[in-house]
Automatic annotation (TrEMBL):
It is a multi-pass membrane protein. Pfam families: MFS_5 (PF05631). The lineage of its organism: Eukaryota, Viridiplantae, Streptophyta, Embryophyta, Tracheophyta. This is Molybdate-anion transporter. It comes from Actinidia chinensis var. chinensis. One of its GO terms (cellular component) is plasma membrane. Mediates high-affinity intracellular uptake of the rare oligo-element molybdenum. SUPFAM superfamilies: MFS general substrate transporter (SSF103473). PANTHER family: MOLYBDATE-ANION TRANSPORTER, SAM (S-ADENOSYL METHIONINE) TRANSPORTER.
Length: 187
């Protein structure tokens, strides 16, 4: 939650191709941690996975939009690309990946972490493709905020959401439990 608020602007400053490569490396490291029996290593893997997920849902799309505009392609193509990505990438490929993961665990008996090992292999292939064929692009340099300012903004947003959640639960408890109890006592 904290990293998701700053990852996009870091990708804009440091380069979106570099952010996509960082995604691949970070998620490969997250997959490797699944082999450890140590709780701290597993938690490190979850943190790495969270950072990688933030990169996944910001850097790749930003790179695509910037490249699309830089090359002067028709804007309608971008819409078609994203609609196909939702169906194929978030739908069909996710189902096929789940079936493949089940295949490597059950049929080939490679063990319970085999899907993570397979994912690391596919990530390495994807990283090689990114390194060899993508060009680097950057975001707008006019919106130049330092990292500390971005973390402060993220902390304020998180504290606001947590505070609202606590008060919501308090009022829900009050309305559902305390007010009816008072009315029962008055009868």
């Amino acid at each position: 939650m904290l990293f998701g608020t700053i990852v996009g602007s870091l990708a804009d400053k440091q380069g979106r191709k570099r952010a996509c490569i960082t995604y691949c490396i970070t998620y490969i490291l997250s997959c490797i941690t699944k082999h450890s029996p140590l709780y701290k290593v597993l938690m490190l893997g979850r943190v790495l996975g969270g950072i990688a997920t933030s990169l996944l849902f910001s850097a790749f799309e930003s790179w695509l939009v910037a490249e699309h505009n830089k090359r002067g392609f028709d804007q309608q193509w971008l819409s078609l690309t994203f609609s196909k990505a939702i169906f194929l990438g978030n739908g069909l490929i996710a189902i096929l990946a789940g079936l493949f993961g089940n295949l490597v665990v059950d049929t080939f008996s490679f063990g319970p972490v085999a899907p993570f090992d397979a994912a690391a292999c596919f990530l390495a292939i994807g990283m090689a493709i990114i390194l060899s064929s993508w060009t680097e692009n950057y975001g707008d340099a006019s919106e130049n905020k330092d990292l500390l300012t971005q973390f402060r903004g993220a902390a304020v947003a998180i504290a606001s959401v947590l505070g609202a959640t606590v008060w919501h639960e308090r009022w829900k408890h009050l309305i559902l439990w305390e007010y009816p109890a008072c009315w029962l006592l008055c009868i």
